[in-house]
UniProtKB/TrEMBL annotation:
Pathway field: Lipid metabolism
Catalyzed chemical reaction(s): (2E)-octenoyl-CoA + NADPH + H(+) = octanoyl-CoA + NADP(+); (2E)-tetradecenoyl-CoA + NADPH + H(+) = tetradecanoyl-CoA + NADP(+); (2E)-dodecenoyl-CoA + NADPH + H(+) = dodecanoyl-CoA + NADP(+); a (2E)-enoyl-CoA + NADPH + H(+) = a 2,3-saturated acyl-CoA + NADP(+)
Function recorded in the entry: Participates in chain elongation of fatty acids. Catalyzes the reduction of trans-2-enoyl-CoAs of varying chain lengths from 6:1 to 16:1, having maximum activity with 10:1 CoA. Has no 2,4-dienoyl-CoA reductase activity.
Protein name: Peroxisomal trans-2-enoyl-CoA reductase
Lineage of the species this protein comes from: Bacteria, Pseudomonadati, Bacteroidota, Flavobacteriia, Flavobacteriales
InterPro entries xrefs: NAD(P)-bd_dom_sf, Peroxisomal_t2-enoyl-CoA_red, SDR_fam
């Protein structure tokens, strides 16, 4: 659907690109002409993913925990040495676990805030300082979540993603002088490797909730990748500071999905 040269010779970094949504984004960017770098915490699955992706184009990888500034700086140094520039940063790495607020301890709260909010900010700041600000050009897409009306059962990630959404609105203004565009994609429930990490009762609850999604289906990793490609492409050259909900209108119908109640009955000890 996009022209195969949409990202020709552009350098694209996809965090969490070894699996699920990130893998699809990396694959599609390669097929649209980009050189792609993927990072995540563990070296072995990253290498395996990079080998699979190399069928589609030039791909590099480096283990990097987005919560660790030194590791991010080392990743930026590798990209500078090998490619000389960075055009697009896709902040896809993240995760959380279902829990009710009253049972969430400091460690669990901090783990998710550190990953999804702090890690995303560190990555944005470091890549902007290393590339986008000196280049006076850059493009950032942040994967957040469907937390438009709060996120019962996932208060930590709701707060973290709302923080990223606000960072996005701030930087769309603060960094407009550097010709940096920054946007979010907010996935609904997407059939991906990430979803498989949830316990069976939560997956059963998702299956039940599907009936109340106005488009009556879960999303596909390709639905998210298409939105990322659009926002990172020149087709979106006048779009910055927005969140694009890719969720079959779930965010308009959340309470009817019965998620809070089902989550509550599952999560109550
Ligand atoms: C509708 C929405 C659909 C969304 C779908 C997706 O997003 S799919 C994509 C989803 N993909 C993913 O989510 C995958 C990636 N997810 C992750 O890597 C983790 O969930 C992370 C984000 C907490 C980071 O982890 P990390 O390596 O930084 O930390 P750690 O593992 O060492 O844990 C630190 C502390 O957190 C707590 N705690 C953690 N887990 C649970 C739990 N299940 N139960 C209860 N508590 C839990 C616990 O306090 C633990 O300390 P402890 O008690 O062990 O001393
Ligand atoms: N699937 C869904 O329905 C939805 C997903 N999302 C979000 O979309 C993103 C992708 O999800 P999905 O593909 O489904 O799930 P996955 O669990 O497959 O992907 C998460 C990726 O992030 C990486 N990652 C996690 N923490 C870090 C870290 N600290 N540093 C570097 N990499 C990290 C993981 O690799 P590793 O563990 O090896 O580090 C993994 O590759 C996530 O942020 C997720 O929360 C949002 C809403 C809905």
């Amino acid at each position: 659907m996009f022209q195969s040269n949409t990202f020709k010779d552009q350098v694209v970094l996809v965090t969490g690109g070894r699996s699920g949504i990130g893998f699809q984004i990396a694959k599609d960017m390669l097929q649209l002409g980009a050189k792609v770098i993927i990072c995540s915490r563990k070296e072995a699955p990253l290498k395996e993913a990079a080998e699979k992706l190399s069928e589609f184009g030039v791909v590099d990888y480096q283990a990097c925990d987005i919560r660790n500034t030194e590791e991010i700086q080392a990743l930026a140094a590798m990209i500078k040495e090998k490619h000389g520039r960075l055009d697009v940063l896709v902040n896809n790495a993240g995760g959380q676990f279902p829990v009710l607020a009253e049972y969430l301890n400091d460690k669990g709260w901090n783990a998710v805030i550190n990953n999804n909010l702090n890690g995303t900010f560190y990555m944005i700041r470091e890549m902007a300082n290393a590339f986008f600000i000196p280049q006076k050009q850059g493009n950032i897409v942040n994967i957040i979540a469907d937390m438009h009306r709060g996120f019962p059962g996932m208060i930590h990630t709701g707060a973290a993603r709302a923080g990223v959404e606000n960072i996005t609105k701030t930087l769309a203004q603060e960094w407009s002088d550097f010709n940096i565009r920054i946007n979010c994609v907010a996935p609904g429930i997407i059939e991906s490797s990430g979803l498989d990490t949830y316990p069976q009762p939560v997956q059963d609850m998702f299956a039940e909730a599907k009936k109340a999604i106005p488009l009556k289906r879960f999303g596909d990793v390709k639905d998210i990748s298409n939105a990322v490609a659009f926002l990172a492409s020149p087709l979106a050259s006048y779009i910055t500071g927005i969140s694009l909900y890719v969720d079959g209108a779930q965010h308009l119908n959340y309470d009817k999905m019965g998620m809070p109640n089902v989550l509550k009955s599952f999560l109550n000890p």
